[in-house]
Amino acid sequence: MEIRFVLNGKETQVSTAPDRRVVDLLREDLGLTGTKEGCGSGECGACAVLVNGESRLSCLMLAAQLDGKALTTIEGAPEDGRLQALQEAFVRCGAVQCGFCSPGMIIAAADLLGARPDTGREAIREGLSGNLCRCTGYAKIVDAVQAAFEKLQGGPTP
Ligand code: FES
Ligand code: FES
Predict the structure, then answer these.
(1) Which of 40, 52, 55, 133 could pair with 111 in a Cys bridge, judged by C-beta atoms 3.0 to 4.6 Å apart?
(2) Which residues lie across from 12 on neighbouring strands?
(3) How many CB atoms lie within 10 A of CB 137?
């Protein structure tokens, strides 16, 4: 099946099985290994990508569902700068240990920022509740997301 979609801002066409998982299409066929696979069953959030600006789990999404959509991975850079600001804040705040969860966390946070830019810690925790981290204890991740939100809204940065 020929699938046309916009990948990280570029018109893209691939020939693939319609039931190929998007996480496999990205990592194995297109070489975009920033998107991680943890559980493979919709429970950890490591595989999150933005589809038409909203966070979606690429381990549960099939290639055919991409046709006509805009897909952004952690390698992408949306015009509004959300991903860049979040990535910088994760580094600045020390929110990364092994880094396996970080792409999915940043994608989920970008979605949260677009949908409901509440800089409160509880709102951020709730927004990231579908993303698991086995290393950090979450506090520094929330610090980073809060700092990125505030920076993008013109507020204080740590
Ligand atoms: S790998 Fe997709 S949710 Fe865990
Ligand atoms: S930094 Fe290791 S899983 Fe989150």
Answers:
(1) 55
(2) 5
(3) 10
> Is-contact 9 76, C-beta < 8 A?
yes
The 54-57 sheet, strands edge to edge:
10-15, 2-7, 70-72, 48-51, 54-57
User: What's the gap in Å between 107 CA and the centre of ligand 2?
Assistant: 14
CB pairs under 8 A, 24+ apart, for 25-34?
25/63, 25/66, 26/58, 26/73, 32/73, 32/75, 34/73, 34/74, 34/75, 34/103
Ligand located closest to 36 CA:
1
* Site to substitute for ligand 1 among 35, 59, 134, most atoms within 8 A of C-beta: 59
Residues with CB under 6 A from ligand 2: 96-101, 133-136
Averaged pLDDT, groups of 10, the chain, 158 residues long: 96 97 98 98 98 96 97 81 92 97 96 81 94 96 95 70
Nearest to 72 by CA among 138, 6, 154: 6
Residue 102 one-letter amino acid: S
Q: Among 136, 138, 141, 142, which is best to mutate for testing ligand 2, by the most ligand atoms less than 8 A from CB?
A: 136
Q: Looking at ligand 1, which residue's alpha carbon is closest to its atom 3?
A: 42
